[in-house]
Design brief:
Layout: H1 3-22, H2 36-48, H3 50-66, H4 76-91, H5 99-123, H6 131-160
Length: 170
């Protein structure tokens, strides 16, 4: 990842983090808000590959772990978003991805990240929810992330792909 791309990705993470903590947290549905930082990570993975997706995922996850009002053990979001960045980056070799593939990737990455975050909280004793409550949180999170992704991820993918040669489907 070059300096320009790293700066763009970190800027996108910073904006997403501020919007997620200040605006999207007030739009929560059953206590679950859309994860804009996850969408930046997915866009980074789709546009730059698994390594960039993982690096952006670690930066975004660490920021989510440390920025108030974080109420969980640090490192849980970092792990979850690193895995989401890797999964999104593995879709990249398929060539130019359309909206259905993008939304499917967001759904899978949201499922992976939210599940890892929730299960790590359950294992570490950081959550009071039982398994049925966790399943409800994961389902709502996937739905909200996919709904927001249709608006945000194509734009972010183009932004994070600036300066990269066009990929042609064989």
């Amino acid at each position: 990842m070059t300096g320009l791309h790293a700066g763009t990705a970190l800027g996108a993470v910073a904006v997403a983090l501020v919007l997620q903590v200040s605006v999207l947290s007030h739009l929560a549905w059953f206590g679950v808000a859309p994860d804009l930082c996850l969408l930046v990570v997915v866009a980074a993975g789709l546009s730059r590959g698994p390594t960039s997706g993982m690096l952006v995922g670690f930066a975004a996850g660490l920021a989510l772990d440390l920025v108030p009002p974080a109420d969980h053990l640090a490192g849980r979001w970092a792990l979850a978003l690193v895995l989401a960045g890797y999964v999104a980056g593995r879709v990249r070799p398929a060539g130019n991805v359309g909206l259905p593939v993008t939304l499917g990737t967001v759904a899978v990455c949201s499922l992976v990240a939210t599940s890892v975050f929730a299960l790590s909280g359950l294992v570490l004793g950081d959550l009071d929810l039982g398994v049925p409550g966790l399943l409800q949180v994961v389902l709502i999170s996937v739905l909200l992330d996919v709904a927001l992704a249709a608006l945000v991820v194509p734009w972010l993918t183009r932004l994070l792909s600036v300066g990269e040669p066009e990929r042609v489907m064989a």
